[in-house]
Amino acid sequence: MIIELKSNVSEKRAQEIAAEVKAFCIHYDGGYVLITSSSTKSLDTKFESETERVTVLNDDMQLSSRAWKKETRTIDINGVKIGGTTMNTALIAGPCSVESEEQIEQSAQLLKELGISIMRAGAFKPRTSPYTFQGMGVEGLKLLAKMREKYGLQIITEVRDATNVEDIIEYADIIQIGAKAMYDHGILKRCGKTQKPVLLKRGFGTTLQEFLQCAEFILAGGNPNVILCERGIRTFETKTRFTLDLCGAAWMKEYSNLPVILDPSHAIGYAYGVPDLARACTAMGVDGLLIEVHPNPKVAKSDASQQLDHDQFRALTGSLNAVANSIGRKII
Ligand code: PEP
Ligand code: MN
Fold this sequence. Notes:
alpha/beta; four-stranded antiparallel β-sheet; 20% strand; binds phosphoenolpyruvate; 332 residues
């Protein structure tokens, strides 16, 4: 149940009511909002004079639900806006990992050339093997910060675990929580304590309900700026790396108020299919795409098989604009 308190209710009073009804208390849209478990179905009438609106929900997908908030949230990334009524489809691109200054600078130059404003690259990589490249760490974050300054880009980079969450919050413009870290409650709760936008990726073995409930940990912590990212789930299929759940994306667009981004690169795992998938994703009218592109994919230190080279990426962006325009959207 979500209880919106009247705007004249003080923080102290909001906290008192929250303690009494066992609720989270957040400040949202100029007032205090309390969130109880969805199993609580009614509020004592003694609070009537202090409440603006009470929304009873069927499950614990609460703050993220359209049942509570009809409009898609607008996420403002230092002036770059997605969601809401913007009709923007944000192209978020860059290599899987930061590997060197030369490599990340070539990536930044490509984005600048194409008018793309959000660059992705991991500095702390959650690899499936301990014997492979694990990322440049804080050195990589510093290179990303340098590119932000030099090329005026917004930076999205992923938090791997509790040991780097503070560094990521400090350096990133959008904090990425990867598929493997989606269930890390320490990370989720910490990200609820900042106001920086968070891109939460769906774990490859999680249901939509489980995914949305992870988003709730961030929202209920007080951070309203969450973006959902579908990046492929594990099915019986082995020819592709994962299976991009476009039905799930349609479901999230219908039932969630959070912007939805699709990641065709990690889903298929092979560069040959990324352009077709990216066009299909754009045609769905989602709020953004996450695409891996590398100056020389053959020598990439992670996810080499799925990264587009610069020419392939240039060709793709032309066709994405056409698809986006055909449904009244704009690639930014
Ligand atoms: C990535 O974006 O490079 C990444 C590791 O993605 P995921 O968490 O979806 O595997
Ligand atoms: Mn990757």
